[in-house]
Amino acid sequence: MPTPTLAAFPKLEQDYPREVIERVWQSAQTVTGNDPDLWRKDERGAWIHRASYRDRHNEFGWEIADCAFTQGSFGIAALRAMQWQNHLDFLMASRQSVVTADGLRNARRLL
């Protein structure tokens, strides 16, 4: 079976106001020695870059995941900054792999 391309995945995210995007970015993990205005990590340990919001052509691209159904919280408290591949895995309930940091790059690891 051929690997699906990015175009095969629908746009799975709603548009958020800038204020919400900024609050979600601020909630992502900071990493000592890195500018928190530019670089952070998602909850699965993958690097994300602030300017790469909604960029699925960039390994550091990120999206906003709505975790209300898994976290039991609602509104802004349920939103998470997530590296785009981790976000797709989250949406598809895939627990087979995760994208996480490997030094200064991101790599897919089997669980």
Describe the structure.
- This protein is α+β, with helices and mostly antiparallel strands and about 110 residues long.
- It has one domain (about 15-110).
- About 20% of the residues lie in helices and about 25% in strands.
- The protein has a two-stranded antiparallel sheet.
- The radius of gyration is 14 Å and the shape is globular.
- The two termini are about 20 Å apart.
- Mean pLDDT is about 85; it is low at about 1-15.
Topology of this protein?
Blueprint: H1 18-27, E1 39-41, E2 47-49, E3 62-66, H2 68-71, E4 79-83, H3 84-91, E5 97-102, E6 105-110
Antiparallel strand pairs: 1-2, 3-4, 5-6
Walk across the major sheet and give the strand order: 1-2
Number of domains: 1
Could you say which overall geometry the principal axes of the C-alpha atoms support? Answer: globular
Major β-sheet profile: 2 strands, antiparallel
- Residue runs with pLDDT of under 50 for 5 or more positions: 1-13
What is the number of helical segments per DSSP (H or I, 4+ residues)?
3
Instruction: Give me the secondary-structure category.
Output: alpha+beta
> In which range does the helix fraction lie?
10-25%
Short key terms for the protein model shown above:
two-stranded antiparallel ribbon, alpha+beta, 111 residues, globular, 25% strand
Summary of the model, kept short:
By secondary structure, the protein is of the alpha+beta class.
